[in-house]
Amino acid sequence: MTVYFIGAGPGAADLITLRGARTLAACRVCLYAGSLVPRELLAECPPDARLVDTADLDLDEITAELVRAHEAGHDVARLHSGDPSVFSAVAEQMRRLDAAGVPYEVVPGVPAFAAAAAALKRELTVPTVGQTVILTRIAHRATAMPEGEDLATLGRSGALIVLHLAARYVDRVVEELLPHYGADCPAAVVAYASRPDEVILRGTLDEIAGQVKEAGVLRTAVIMVGRTLGAKQFRDSHLYSPERERH
């Protein structure tokens, strides 16, 4: 059997990939994060599939479920919100499966920052304005940030910064980025991207914290800060330029 770590996408059930949906439909066991993964996706599972909500399980209990399915000869769909490559807590599960000799594969999904950019109708990399996107978070009660990855240090680059898991700490975000980006720098927050209750907030860096508090956004949100969010005057990309050699 194989454990398939499947990116379920940012929220809308139809944003799972075709490969993800096909894999889900073929697995006899499905572990999913009930607080994040849309329930509609579970309809893709076989009628007799064992469904396990991992919201109240710790890492050892999750690993035990995966190993138990392996021993029974069942493929497992391990559904994670967004894409497994960022902020998914997949790495420690893979490490446990390696130790247990359980094979696994990864099926990518649509990440939350991509869904947020789509909601904002913005390309995050704009010629001559910004070509770098930093995906990060800030330190709080959970895992500390490694040395050199604090927000003040990353902000010195001037690149577009995308923050996950930071809506509760928006005041800190603004405080640490203001010296590097300026009060008038475009900023945006998208909560519940792609879902029916999606919330989109746009403004400048010195305005965005107030908007977040007024809207009551506390979780499941992405914060973006950078000049590409408001770029209007920029050179066309060389990709489609008539001057580009195409032969």
From TrEMBL:
Annotated GO molecular function terms are:
precorrin-4 C11-methyltransferase activity
Q: Which UniProt keywords apply?
A: Cobalamin biosynthesis, Methyltransferase, S-adenosyl-L-methionine, Transferase
Pathway in which this enzyme or protein is active: Cofactor biosynthesis; adenosylcobalamin biosynthesis
Which domain of life does the protein's organism represent? Bacteria
Read off the Gene3D superfamilies from this record: Cobalt-precorrin-4 Transmethylase, Domain 1 (3.40.1010.10), Methyltransferase, Cobalt-precorrin-4 Transmethylase, Domain 2 (3.30.950.10)
Q: Where is the Tetrapyrrole methylase domain?
A: 2-209
GO BP annotations listed: cobalamin biosynthetic process; methylation
Output the PROSITE patterns linked to this UniProt entry. Answer: SUMT_1, SUMT_2
* Family listed: Belongs to the precorrin methyltransferase family.
Protein name, per record: Precorrin-4 C11-methyltransferase
Q: Which organism is it from?
A: Streptomyces caeruleatus
Lineage of source species = Bacteria, Bacillati, Actinomycetota, Actinomycetes, Kitasatosporales
